[in-house]
């Protein structure tokens, strides 16, 4: 009874901004429509899946059903939840520390217990988070210790701290400069590789997100991609994990650094096409995995920009078939990525085996449906070229038996 009363007290104190207008529950993954109204991802996706073309709160007609993650609101909700849990557990908890104690921890010798207290301090309020995140000396200290430490637990906790800091304005540029700065001996990227290899799934996800965040220019992308073992670990995170958040984080980081042909060729050698094919065939069509499918198809589109990538995709029959099956089944973004990949192998590369595989799984009908949908002009143009190729393929296939029968007729 007492527990239910405490839950009730918490329920009535939830800020209205944190509630989804549809479910009225605290939002787990807030996303905004083009109208500016924010909803929980699962709730708005169910609404749109029912065929509604309006904003539930305003009833305005939606010119676009694309959603944008509201990262600021999500961070505020996470901070509020963490603070609420601490308050419920012990309002006068002895683990709470002051700003001066936080400074002492930052300037002292790091251990997992003191860093855990610092994380508790940072997540207690937005003010505390900014106090640490806006201190150049503090951020420099975290990066310095991360670069020198070979203790996996210390590395994991510092990665968690850097993940919290990364949400603040200007953090990307500062982290990019500090993490990629050359130093003596072991560097910071080696520590990220260590966490990706030996850390928990949660730590791996946060490491991948930070690497994606700091890949802001060709030089940083090159440094990350060329760091020994890092590309392989990110590939492994995408290919071996069953956790959808881990797969998405791995693919997102790979997309951020796969900007040059050598990197794409190395990913193809590692087996990224086969891995993506398994992702496409292994995941269902539900909303929670939509972003994973979008990233997977975007990865194929990226490697399809080089000859080796188009060849690998064409040779993987399962991959080509799954691309066709995903058209119009996931999202507009996923469909446009899929069309670009099919155009690359069927029209740009003109690979006969790829054309045949697409035709066999009713690809022509699917492409025609995409043409009639609300797709972009460039996608519609690629669909037009695909239709010509697939119709020609279908015509040749239908005429083949007749040609075979008539080749042996003896002329008069």
UniProtKB/TrEMBL annotation:
Pathway: Protein modification; protein ubiquitination. Keywords: Transferase, Ubl conjugation pathway. This is U-box domain-containing protein. Residues 13-87 form the U-box domain. One of its GO terms (molecular function) is ubiquitin protein ligase activity. Functions as an E3 ubiquitin ligase. Pfam families: ARM_PUB, U-box. It catalyses: S-ubiquitinyl-[E2 ubiquitin-conjugating enzyme]-L-cysteine + [acceptor protein]-L-lysine = [E2 ubiquitin-conjugating enzyme]-L-cysteine + N(6)-ubiquitinyl-[acceptor protein]-L-lysine. GO terms for biological process: protein ubiquitination.
